[in-house]
Amino acid sequence: MKEFIFDDSFPGLLTVLNRALKEKGEVKIWGKNNYKPSLFGFPEWVGKNHEEAMDFKKKLALEFSEPAYRPVFYAFLSEKEDFPNLIFDFLRKLKTNEKVLDHPVKDLEKSVCREKVRMLGLVRFKKVKEGYYYSSISPQYNVIGLLAPHFSSRQGKQEWIIHDMSRQVAIFGAGRDWEIKELTGMNFQTSFEEKIVQLLWQEHFKALPVPGRKNRKRQKSLIPRRYWPHLIEKQ
Amino acid sequence: MDLLDRLRLLTSGARYDASCVSSGSKREKPGGAMGICHSWTEDGRCVSLLKILQSNDCVYNCRYCVHRTDRDGPRVSLSSREVAELTVNFYQRNYIEGLFLSSAVKDSPDHTMEFMVSTASILRREYNFPGYIHLKGIPGADKKLLQQAGYLADRMSVNIELPSRESLEKLAPQKDPQKIFQPMNFLKKSKEGDKRFLGAGQSTQLIIGASPENDRDIINLATKLYEKFSLSRIFYSAYIPTGDPRFISNNQAPPLLREHRLYQADWLFRFYHFSPKDIFAPGQENLEKELDPKSGWAIRNYGFFPVEINRAPYRDLLKVPGIGPISARRIIKARREVSLDFFSLQKLGVVMKRARFFITCRGKKIPGLPGSPESIRPFLTMPAARPKMERLFPLEGGEKG
Predict the structure, then answer these.
(1) B21-30 pLDDT, tens per residue?
(2) Nearest to B93 among A124, A210, A223 (CB)
(3) Whether ipTM exceeds 0.85
(4) B3-241: what fold?
(5) What was the pLDDT predicted at A92?
(6) Is this model's pTM higher than 0.95 or not?
(7) Three-class SS string for chain B?
(8) Residue boundaries of the structural domains of chain B
């Protein structure tokens, strides 16, 4: 068996996949942080190579039996255990025209996509004294980068931050530009005006349901409890 | 009264409008994506708009309505600027995608319409608000006002509420039924060929259960309305007993199941190529409670089936209970690649517990299933009445249950 190890980055993953797909026999891909050394395995280190990664990205779009870039990228974002080998298996099957309709990578793609769409609605900005808009989230998957294009056009000229608390990264947006940076903590003050707006929103939300139609079970299935801590209307 | 109290009163006054959509607009705008749900209320409805009344101070005394003149309770309004500022503040914080503004008829139809137009105008002109705006069209308001509204809003709705002239005359004696259709007609005409006018079209609402019309009357009216006024949507709203007890029985629970069945029927003729006469059997007046209308059709027309998944055209796939437009399209795409079996159908989102009775894959039915329309029926009705079956695929021994 041929073993590879890569640096856990996405370009790194693309590089290692490109190499691994050239192998004929069995392959195992390790992420750097999950590597468990064994007595007989001697994994080959594959450093990320941006040029090779870009080339392979193009190949994913064109040279497989169906467009494969999105499933690969979304499965990467799912951070699911053993995702590099799932993706490798998926691509190998595509290459040999095998059926991938119910491949785990397809399911991961779907779950990540659903989480992204959900987060588009669940981000709650607070306007802070310093003048920018701040939102904290803890999505199940690493979807923060997928949110950026939507909010960069939606928020107009505002300056805004969406902070993934569990992964300690954040998007910083200003006008049309945005970038993703590491961010551990954030110090800001909530203004009086902000508290009023939150209060109004909570009051509105409380008054919305029609008394004769309460259906908590449906509410919970549509918005699972793990999202509540960041939602102002659920405080 | 302070803003918080008025917000509460005017929110609870607006909640009887069933609409919650913010999608379908063709208006170009930054931020593009619409139809986003921002939260879900305790009654399980999606929140995507600030849904609120400009005022609950009404000159009419419609018997079914919470705002009728002879009902007690505080009468309040929000100023145009107040509504505009609430909308902008909520929008910037990503609580909502836009505004759904309705109103009781305060003083006169013209005055009320002007009030709402001025709110929308502050939003669009002063705040450059890019979000979605839905405005209620007030019957009897001046055409100039309706026209202004149509250029500011993405969608408008003129609510018919009661599904027949007799009921309108009885329960809303001050309203002239003809006047409800005039603004609908005007909006339809103004929209023709003008892309900037009501990008998401117009809709209306019918109240279900406050008056004696049967489902067949309602569906017939609905198809005519879609045709005549090119409506984008009709909302059906189960009547919540808040009306005048001298005119409406208030003992009943809101007919939620009936409302649900009407939406199913509405979907059938909008997206499934059914006609109203497919939906009702001859002589049938109401939709069945236990059975969804599509399954009902399938049982009555059992001779149409089975549909062969690997060959049937799109329209035939759509006739199968458990297959919708999305899964039908997926089937057509997937079968170009491979010949489909029953397990792959489940993956494609087909609801096999209903579809299994009506399909074949590669010419074969799932063995061991009942084969006459009446013996299938209990498997398609509501959970309580459904006999238990050990496995979805009785003789295939599959691992999926």
Answers:
(1) 555 555 444 4
(2) A124
(3) yes
(4) TIM Barrel (3.20.20)
(5) 94
(6) no
(7) CCHHHHHHHHHHHHCCCCCCCCCCCCCCCCCCCCCCCCEECCCCCEECEEEEECECCCCCCCCCCCCCCCCCCCCCECCHHHHHHHHHHHHHCCCCCEEEEECCCCCCHHHHHHHHHHHHHHHHHHCCCCCEEEEECCCCCCHHHHHHHHHHCCEEECCCECCCHHHHHHHCCCCCHHHHHHHHHHHHHHHCCCCCCCCCCEEEEEEECCCCCCHHHHHHHHHHHHHHHCCCEEEEEECCCCCCCCCCCCCCCCCHHHHHHHHHHHHHHHHCCCCHHHHCCCCCCCCCCCCCHHHHHHHHCHHHCCEECCCCCHHHHHCCCCCCHHHHHHHHHHHHHCCCCHHHHHHCCCCHHHHHHHEEECCECCCCCCCCHHHHHHHHCCHHHCCCCCCCCCCCCCCCC
(8) 3-241, 293-385
